[in-house]
Design goal:
Distance between the termini: 18 Å
Shape: globular
Number of strands: 13
Protein name: TIGR03087 family PEP-CTERM/XrtA system glycosyltransferase
Oligomer: single chain
Number of domains: 2
Pfam family, one: Glyco_trans_1_4
CATH topology of the largest domain: Rossmann fold
Number of helices: 18
CATH class of the largest domain: Alpha Beta
Keywords: Transferase
Structural class: alpha/beta
InterPro entries: Sugar_tfrase_PEP-CTERM_Stp1
Organism: Parasphingorhabdus cellanae
Strand content: 15-25%
């Protein structure tokens, strides 16, 4: 029986943010079938020290602290003509680790999670290679460039061009390239010229036991007015832009009809720009919280007003799994197999977001029906078992191994 090397750009535990959720569940699935060697980066000492039951079951583990500064990564990128996304994650230790495992162990598959980790696959490796891009990152940088001006627009345009070329190069080499939604997969097929037999959609799932609305109490707030909630990592640019827009453009319209409405921005590491929203137009900024589910449970409406978004938004799936009515932008709803108006509200602009929220606050029966419909959809479609059903075969794992693992 062969073994697998799993490369990912962040420690895949705990599964508390979008990319880590996906890598965590894929890793667990592969560990059901084969010994897995994991190498990854940690953003800081706390993440490096995080415990998980996964550790003891891995064939080997290497965690590298990522401490290269942005300016040094930028200088290296300009000097080498490479994308900053690659130079900021480059590591001689990971290169050596992968080479060592390939020499010492019977590796027949390398699974790469996140494009920047593909640089660690040796040029002479000729075994199975599965590349999980999740999103088309180069398209994200194109969006940043289109929305920006001056030097940053140039930097983002350069990154989009170089990263796009790298993505296509990797995908041409890989046996399969995976994306989190059919929309992302189709976009990449158009950009790369590759076909459906090489570029596939493997969606995200939801841990139904964790996101069981009956298993958590709502956070208690002194304020008793209607509550809108946004969840996410609050130093991530699309999340920052989303809450800035909602607080300044949407909340004033909501307050005209619901004077005591509040908007909670719930998530770790809020930037200074996000913190300054606290107290503005009924906005509160919580920072990191003990249990994000308690805030979702307390919400009258969960909002996802992202102006730039790639793939599937876990924040939307989580809220829907907890039976909450969701108002999402077109970008945030993309990739979710849901019917607008039946499972969630999809708004084309800030004014529509305000209108949908106000309508749901004024009609609680309609809000409940929307949330209940969302809950049923997620539970019927978005289990991790369903989403990862074909993962073993993509990695070359034989049918008898799949049957044995199931037994």
């Amino acid at each position: 029986m062969g073994e697998i090397i799993f490369l990912t750009h962040r420690v895949p535990w705990p599964p508390n943010r979008g990319d880590k959720i996906r890598s965590h569940h894929i890793l667990r699935k592969l560990m059901e079938y084969r010994p897995v060697h994991l190498t990854c980066f940690a953003d800081d000492e706390a993440e490096e020290a995080e415990e998980s039951d996964i550790k003891a079951s891995l064939a080997s583990l290497q965690i590298i602290r990522r401490d290269k500064s942005n300016w040094l990564a930028g200088i290296e990128a300009v000097a080498t003509g490479r994308p900053v996304s690659l130079t900021s994650f480059d590591s001689t230790k990971i290169h050596s680790y992968v080479q060592g495992i390939l020499k010492a162990r019977p590796i027949d598959c390398i699974f790469v999670f996140s494009g920047q980790m593909a640089q660690f696959v040796p040029a002479d490796y000729n075994g199975r290679l599965v590349m999980d891009f999740a999103d088309v990152d180069s398209a994200k940088f194109e969006s940043y460039a289109d929305d920006g001006t001056g030097p940053m627009a140039w930097i983002n345009r350069r990154e989009a061009k170089l990263l796009g070329a790298f993505e296509t190069q990797v995908a041409n080499r890989a046996d399969y390239s995976l994306f989190v939604s059919e929309a992302e997969a189709q976009l990449f097929r158009q950009r790369s010229g590759l076909t459906k037999d090489k570029v596939k959609a493997v969606g995200n799932g939801i841990d139904f036991h964790f996101y069981d609305p009956s298993d958590v109490a709502a956070v208690e707030l002194p304020h008793k007015g209607p509550l809108m909630v946004f969840t996410g990592q609050m130093d991530y640019r699309p999340n920052v832009e989303a809450v800035l827009s909602f607080s300044t453009d949407v909340m004033p319209q909501i307050i005209k009809r619901h004077a005591d409405a509040q908007f909670a921005i719930v998530g770790r590491a809020p930037t200074d720009a996000v913190r300054k929203l606290d107290g503005l137009n009924g906005t509160m900024v919580t920072g990191s919280v003990d249990d994000i589910r308690s805030w979702i449970k307390a919400a009258d409406v969960v909002v996802a007003p992202l102006r730039i978004a790639r793939g599937i938004q876990n924040k939307v799936l989580e809220a829907m799994a907890m039976g909450k009515p969701v108002v999402a932008s077109v970008a945030a709803a993309q990739g979710i197999d849901a019917v607008a108006g039946e499972h969630l509200c999809v708004a084309n602009n800030p004014s529509e977001e305000a209108q949908f929220v106000c309508d749901l606050l004024s009609n609680r029966e309609k809000a409940k029906l929307l949330g209940d419909s969302a809950n049923r959809l997620i539970r019927s479609t978005y289990s991790w078992k369903t989403q990862l059903a074909d993962m073993a075969r993509l990695c070359g794992i034989e049918d008898d191994e799949i049957i044995e693992a199931a037994e």
